[in-house]
């Protein structure tokens, strides 16, 4: 099974730039999207234009038009779909869960999450912390409840290895100590960060670069896109790769997708840390 997590920076823009064609070319079984920025009808039409009309779509748009929006796309119909966790963010287009089945028949909950960007010492940061608090409670419940994969744009770089210019960003949202502590707690509780587990000690691989300046060319990026797995699901992962564009002109989002390949038949000690074959 192959899962791809992608912040598309607007699904219609991603279609125009070739991003949905890129996703389809990877032959995934599950795609999680963030920053969809479309209503249901627009998303389905856009997917159809990209040849993905037959996919099952679980979508949580934001009530604020043109903002946020998350989705889980799958080749098979989801057994159940849930949006949010019963608080102020349920209509914000930032959390959706779809219950799917792994190839061996086990049920797994797949989440697409889009955490706020935030801004240090402002109400925007307070809102981000409230969301992270709710996310932490839901992660605890998922960890206790069975198999799960939580994917998305968390807008937090966890460690120094996850951001190129970490010294210059110590007081900026996205690398604040209180934000990073959430990931500390989640991983200590049992969640596995697949990107780091299969990407080596770093620095990088990064998943976000500013559109401005030479950030992409100089690989001055942030690793803020994650796939977290419950331990038993993490044991079935063969490889994880970041689908970074070969050059700036080929970028279709300011994020790069995270590609996860599962192979439950492969012995854990023999599983590769190398990238799966990602099509340029």
Entry summary:
This protein is an alpha+beta fold and 280 residues long.
Protein traits:
6-stranded mixed beta sheet
List the domain count as a whole number: 1
Rounded mean pLDDT score: 92
Per DSSP, the total helix count is 7
- The total count of strands amounts to 12
Question: Low-confidence parts, pLDDT < 50 over ≥5 residues?
Answer: 266-276
Classify the helix fraction into a percent range: 25-40%
The proportion of strand residues reads 15-25%
Label the overall shape. globular
H/E element sequence: EHHEHEEEEEHEHEHEHEE
Q: Label the structural class.
A: alpha+beta
What is the CATH class?
Answer: Alpha Beta
Sheet with the most strands, sense and barrel status: 6 strands, mixed
Q: From the alpha-carbon coordinates, what is the Rg to the nearest angstrom?
A: 17 Å
Q: Give me the CATH architecture, please.
A: 4-Layer Sandwich
The CATH topology comes to Deoxyribonuclease I, Chain A
